[in-house]
Every structure is written in C-alpha cells, then in structure tokens.
Amino acid sequence: MAYIDNSAEASIASGGTRVEDYLALLKPRVMSLVVFCALVGILVAPGSINPFIGFIAIVCIAIGAGASGALNMWYDADIDRIMSRTQNRPIPAGRATPGDALALGLVLSAFSVMLLTLATNWVAGGFLAFTIFFYAVIYTMWLKRSTPQNIVIGGAAGAFPPMVGWAAVTGTVTWESFALFLIIFLWTPPHFWALALYKQGDYGAAGVPMMPNVAGEKSTKCQIFAYTLALAIAAFLPNILGFSSWIYGIVALATGAGFLWFAVKLLVSPEGADMKRAARSLFTYSLSYLFVLFLALLVDNFALRLGVI
After folding, report:
1. Most distant CA pair in the chain: distance in Å?
2. CB 212, CB 196: distance < 8 Å
3. How is residue 3 annotated by DSSP?
4. Which partner for 136 in 26, 71, 126, 298 could form a disulfide, CB atoms 3.0-4.6 Å apart?
C-alpha cells in the first residue's frame, strides 16, 4: 500500500513533481465522464439554478472526483507498480510521492465539499462528501482487495454524481435522480469486467480478486450479459418516470441493442484470443455508450423544455 522505492524518491527530489503530474493524480479521463454525467443531472433536474452557481457546482464535483482519484492512487501505489496499464501513473513512475497524492486528495476533498455546501445546499455537499468517502474508503481500501463484487458495490461511487448534481438544483433526492444513478450502476460491472477479462493477468499478479480471476471466464461472461440486459431495461426508466420523450427512448433502444450485441458476442466467444478481442470490443463500446445515452437525455430534455416535441 502506498509504496515507492528509494530510486523514485531520489528522482522526485532532484526534479520535483510537475504540475502535469499533479493533474494526472486526479485521473482526468475518468473525471471527464463523471463531470458530464453530473452536468446532465443539473440540467435535467426540475427547477432552475443560477448559471454561475451551477458552474461552481460542476467545478466542485470535478474537484471532488479528482480528489477521489488522488486518494485512490495514494492507497493503490503498490499494485499500480505491478499492473501494466497503471505502471506509468505518477507514483509508480516516480514522478510523485504517495504523500503528494494523499495531501492533494485530502485538501481537495475538504475544499470541494465545503464550497459546494456553501454555494448550493447541505444535501448536495453531504452527498459529495459521502461519494468521496465511498470511493476512497469503502471501495479502494476495503472492497477492491477483498471481494470479486468490488466493482458491483464500489461502482455506486461512480454512479452518485448525477444525484449530486440533481441535489444541487433541488436540494432533494428523487426517483428520477435515482434512475440516473441506476443506469450508471448497472453499466459499471460489464464495463470493468470486460476490461478484467483481457487484463486478468495484471489483476492476478496484483492480487486483486476481479471476477474473471475468482469465478472464471465463463461465469464472468454470463454475469456481463445479465448486467447488460438489466442495463438495457433500466435505460428506459427516464421514459417510464416521465422526464424524457421518444427521442431519448429511440437512442436508449439503439444503444442498448448494441451493448447486448457485444455482450452476446462475448458470451459465445471461445476462450483465448477470440474472447479477449470480444471483451476489448465490449469495453470500447461501453466507453461511448454512457456518454451517448446521457447526451441523448440532455438533448431530449432541452427539446421538451423548448416545446419542440
């Protein structure tokens, strides 16, 4: 946990941690999707919010997401050194120390929560604090290394941002905001288990009990299909709850069918190179799925408010 070798310490001492390395500690690529989903939560929530306050809310959610990423990199520095996809992160690459990540994560966590509470309301601020705690402590420090259900339960942290955005506008948590949470929550297992299928050697070497390493490839493929089917159904909740129209419904149907097609292709793929290619294809598709679905909800909502449909 949070390990760095002496040579890396010396490298940092001689060159110093650069601004871009501090930014990398915030996991900007992960943050971008989190921020977009939170923005959709703000914009489709009933009522209105001052544009400047809305901007502050988005900045706070982005900072909170970045703080979670920094705390994750602090705690996971030991296994990040082992896994090929994380070896170039600032700490294992020797461009930052665990102390850098810990200090950055704690300071940004406190700042983002306090500012969001002052700018909007205590519900949104408290929800953001809980989201950071859930990701950094419940998922990173407990679930990730102890159970193959780590992604299922821990995935809730990544699904909270639209609810935080919704609460920033309304001061409440509603079934509509929970529907947005559920979509992301059900998306998370097939997204990450597809990655784990073609990176299971990395997770095995690091001792992380991801589903393919514990339950095997066949079971993982079946569970990916089951979650994808549940996701394709849950994607229609905005229509069922009445805060979207046929525009979003068509996109939900098309993107859900595409996700199911990739899940079936993975399900029937034989072990070996074919399975890894199918898993990579599903993972790649899942990256754009959530963005397209939430973008469709945003466009649909604007069309409804403008009376176009």
Report:
1. 63
2. yes
3. -
4. 71
Determine the pLDDT at residue 135: 95
Q: What gap in Å lies between CA 226 and CA 60, rounded to an integer? A: 35
Q: Give CA angle at 191 (197, 289), nearest 5°.
A: 140
Residue in 119, 123, 114 with CA at minimum distance from that of residue 50: 119
Q: CATH: 1.10.1040.10, 3.40.250.10, 3.20.20.150, 1.10.357.140. Which one for 1-173?
A: 1.10.357.140
Give the integer Cα–Cα distance in Å for 104 and 179: 32
pLDDT band at 54 (very low <50, low <70, confident <90, very high): very high
Contact 231, 152 (CB under 8 A): no
Q: What does each C-alpha distance from 234 to 30, 81, 199, 238 come to in angstroms?
A: 23, 37, 28, 9
Q: Which residues contact 75 (CB under 8 A, 6 or more apart)?
A: 1, 2, 136, 140, 141
Using the 8-state DSSP alphabet, how is residue 4 labeled? -
Element containing residue 264 per DSSP (H, E): helix 246-267
Cα-flanking dihedrals φ and ψ of residue 208, to 5°?
Answer: -90, 120
Dig out the tokens for 242 from the structure. Answer: 């009445």
Query: What values do phi and psi take at 245, rounded to 5?
Result: -120, -165
Q: How confident is the model at residue 16 (pLDDT cuts 50, 70, 90)?
A: low
Contacts (Cβ under 8 Å, ≥6 apart) of 209: 145, 146, 147, 148, 150, 203
DSSP secondary structure code for residue 81 in this structure: T
Determine what percent of the chain falls in helix, strand and coil, rounding each to the nearest 5.
75, 0, 25
CA distances from 173 to 5, 166, 235 (A): 45, 7, 19
Distance between CA atoms of residues 159 and 40, nearest Å = 13
To the nearest 10°, the Cα dihedral for 259, 155, 115, 175?
70
- Quote the percentage of the chain above a pLDDT of 70: 95
Q: What's the pLDDT at 2? A: 47
